[in-house]
Amino acid sequence: MTEGEEYCLARMSVDPFMAMKKSNYNKNNQRRFSDEQIKSLEMMFESETKLEPRKKVQLARELGLQPRQVAIWFQNKRARWKSKQLETEFNILKQNYNDLASQFESLKKEKQALVSELHRLNEEVQKTHEEKRLCCGDQAAVVALSSTDHESENEENTRREQEEEVRPEMEVCEKGDDGVLCGHHNDDYDDGGYNNDIKREYFGGFGEEADHLMNIVEPADSCLTSSDDWGGFKSNANLLDQSSSNCPWWDFWS
DNA sequence: AACTTTATTAAGTTTACTTCA
DNA sequence: CGTGAAGTAAACTTAATAAAG
C-alpha cells in the first residue's frame, strides 16, 4: 500500500466524505476508474458528449460511482476531446499551408523563368529595331538630296513614326540608373516602371481592359518580391498570424 | 420587470500518481 | 536503486449563463 493510499484510508476512517472530496480516491479506494467503468463511460460519451441528469444518475448507479464523479468525468472528457480536435484541425491546416507554399514556390520559379524569357525577347526586338533604324536613316539622307519640299515633309513624318515605334523599348531599357541598357538584376524585378512596361507587353492593345488587368496583377507582383521569410515557417501557434504581414501571401491567388 | 437561487458548463488549476531518462 | 521532470487522470475552483421561483 502506498503512502497516499494509507493517508487516504486514514482520512476516510475519520471523515469518509472529506477523504473522497479532497483526495483522488473514490469510495472504493480506487484512484483511477476501472477499465470496465472507463469503457462504459467512453461508450456513453460516443453517443452523447453531454449527459442528461437522469442518464447521469443511472450510469453512476450502474458503475458504482457518484453522479458527481460521472459529471466530472464527462467534463474532463469533453476538454480532452476538444483539445484533440484542435490538434487534428491544426495538423490539417498545417498540411494545407505546406502544400500551398510549395505550389507557390513552383509558380514563383515559373514566373521568373517567363520574365527572363520576356527580357531576352525584348532585347532581341530592340536590336532589330536599332538595325532597322540605322539602315533607314542612310536611305533618307540619299533621298533628301533629290526630293521636293513636300516629299521631304512626308519622309520626315515617316521617320518620326519609325522613331516613335522604337522609343517604347528604349524607354523600358533606359530606366536603369546604372546607364546600362536593360541593366536590371535578374532577382529584382519589382521596379514599378519596368514591371508596368512588361505588363504593357502582355496586355498591350486592350486599352482600359489592359489597365484593369494590370491592376489585378499589381499586388501579386509586389508580393512575389517580398516573400523572403517564407522558409522560416515553424509549426507553432503563430501559424495563422502570418496573415498580418504587409503582403498577405494569398493575394497571389486572388 | 427585477431579484435571488440553483444547476450546468468551459476553462483553468491542483493533487497524487506513473513513467522514464 | 534513487531522483526529478514530464505526463496523466480525477477532482476542484471560478466565472458565466440560463431557467425557475
UniProtKB/TrEMBL annotation:
GO biological process, any: positive regulation of DNA-templated transcription
Family, similarity comment: Belongs to the HD-ZIP homeobox family. Class I subfamily.
Location of the region described as Disordered in the Swiss-Prot/TrEMBL record: 146-169
PANTHER family, alphabetized: HOMEOBOX-LEUCINE ZIPPER PROTEIN, HOMEOBOX-LEUCINE ZIPPER PROTEIN ATHB-7
GO molecular function, one term: transcription cis-regulatory region binding
Protein name, UniProt field: Homeobox-leucine zipper protein
Keywords from the UniProt entry: DNA-binding, Homeobox, Nucleus, Transcription, Transcription regulation
Main location (coarse class): nucleus
Record has Iron as a keyword: no
Function description: Transcription factor. Probable transcription activator that may act as growth regulators in response to water deficit.
DNA-binding region(s), chain positions: 26-85
Cellular component, GO annotation: nucleus
Residue span, Homeobox domain: 24-84
Extent of Basic and acidic residues compositional bias: 148-169
Statement: the UniProt record of this protein carries the keyword Metal-binding: no
Subcellular location per the Swiss-Prot or TrEMBL entry: Nucleus
Pfam family, any one: Homeodomain
